[in-house]
Amino acid sequence: MQENQSKHKVLFDHLQVAYGELLIVFDNFETPWNHDDSRIGVKNLLEKIAKCGKVSLIVTMRGLNEPGDIPWEKLGDEFGIPTLAPVPAKEAFKAFAGNKLQSSDNSESQIDSFLHQLECVPLAIRLSAQHLKRIPLKALISMWEKDKTSILAEGTVPGRLTSVSFSIDLSMQIFKIEGRTLNLLSVISYLPDGIPFWVEYLSQMFPGEEFSFNVSTLLDSSLIYNQDEGLKMLAPVREHVHLKYPIGQTDTDHLDTFYSGFFENLPEDIMQAQPVLQYHINNIEKVFKAQISSGHSKTSCISVIKTLNRCVQFVSVSVGLITHLLQNDQNIGKKDEIDLKLMRAGQLRWMGRFQDAKIQVMSIKQSLNEEGNTSQSEANILGKCFDILQDIYYAQAQYGKAIKMNLQAQKYFEQSEDQWAQASSVSWLGEIYYVQARYKEASRIFSEAQQLFQKIENDVGVAECLQRLGDIYGMQNRNEEAIDIISDAQRKFQTFGNQLRAAECLLSLGELYRMQEKYDEASEMTLKAQKQFKKIGYKQGLADCLWTLGRVYRNQVQYDKAIDMFSNAHRQYQSIGRIVNVAQCLEHLGITYRLEGQYPKAKEAFTEALELLKRFPGEKYSIGYTLLHFGHLFFDCQDFAEARKMYEKARDLFDSHGELEKEVDECSERLAKLDEAEVAASISYIYDNNPCTH
């Protein structure tokens, strides 16, 4: 500095004569940019510096709009610098934690879960990881669950780099977030999903007030961000704002009113409704649980639960709301209470929580009179109870018990004069016979159910019966008839909007084409079904598709792909408690390993399958086929004694079934081949050990 020279002159003289290129970094530039009335001066200075040919600038600041009339190249995405991706976030967390962090399979999954909750915010990662130098990971996660952003700080003096809360408050101060704009911020912090499609829905959430919210200011502050046309908030910001500026009851009532109307306007078609609900489902759960707890809006909540009950993708949310409502409303009507409990029992069975579902049903049954004079309404409730019990036993392959429950359900539905429920129950009896390969009985029952549905003009029920009759034709090798019937049923279900049944038909067609060795068509149909099941959220359907694809790949001698499919299906079935299906996956893994020549793995798979099937003596078809293929394995290994045991056990089991004559014949043929092989082996042995032959 020289006398009478301004700082600006000295700076620009230097920049103009500087040798080489210069880089100037302005960090946290929102501080001067938003300070009192200094923006014009700061803007002029920045633009003047940018005109210097050898000077490059980097500016970091909170906000979406770049400072000054400068052609900036924006880093990150359109909404600014994004949070870290999961892998680098984990690397950073471990680096900040240092060698105090003990690595294990359990700790790896805990870190992944913890970083997901922090939404991989860099400052939150650094500040939380610092604690691991003093406390174990488990304690840190517990502190976060209890204290949230209070753990995201270090030292005694808070600053923008030492405290997440300080950093958030600083943004609020700089951008002057107050009044209704602050109120909007607190609403967004309350909603886990933020405000999806905010341009459309904000005005509906707060009628007449949308113009009092300054969304641009909140976006500029970086406290919220725009994603998929929705206003969202990162977890650390959400936790801090919600704690410091909790939402009021008036705004909760606005949200209740909005979501009640939202449900009324949902598409009737569940396949169309579920994607729309997906954007809001966590908000819905939060809002209605809060309203139940505070004693508000129980009527609309019951309506919401009934709609969610139709969407299998959100079963866990529905169960949570029902449980919360039953626990918190002491004045709920008897009819509503029973309806909700039946609904919850059905959902628990769908989730594979069979014991919980059974306990729920039994508690309803005990409150009703099963003996003597039963009213029509009570008979209908009892019918529904036995109907759910039948589903529980059916899902666990306890077919004898399932049939008993089914017949009881039919009796009560007939007494209550509920013709649809009675027809549906008859159809389910056919389903139980079908999965046991009792095709003659199943065919008779489905024909009876079809007539009942026709009588009450229920086209969906008629199509369901036709679908199953087509499946039976397929099992009887009447493939062309089966394809015609199931294709017709699939078109009908598509017209009715019953996407679940339509997907099941596609899967059946895939299996029929596989049996005809039309593998391209089989794959096409199965993949279409898989796509439909995924949209619906039907886990068993997804597993069934993997199982069918595994057999398609095996038929094409693509053993590695087949093993992947069967292994994946095995995991899916296990997760939903379908133990018989788990055993069937093991059986098919055993078959595939045998064909590959991996005999030890095949033996292990068959042994494990038979061990699981011991719990289900009614599964004669599955047990018999596992024994048959186990026999093939022993035959390949020339252990003829063990092969004979397996073939004989399989033959006797198929024979006791009564409808598996073809399988009995196959076992007899295998035993005949075994006799020939044993004779040939004996002759070979005599020849090899007779000195006269050498």
Automatic annotation (TrEMBL):
Pfam families: SNAP, TPR_12. InterPro entries: TPR-like_helical_dom_sf, TPR_rpt. TPR repeats lie at residues 583-616. It comes from the Eukaryota. The keyword Ribosomal protein does not apply. The keyword Disulfide bond does not apply. PROSITE patterns: TPR. Keywords: Repeat, TPR repeat. This is TPR-like protein. It comes from Dendrothele bispora (strain CBS 962.96).
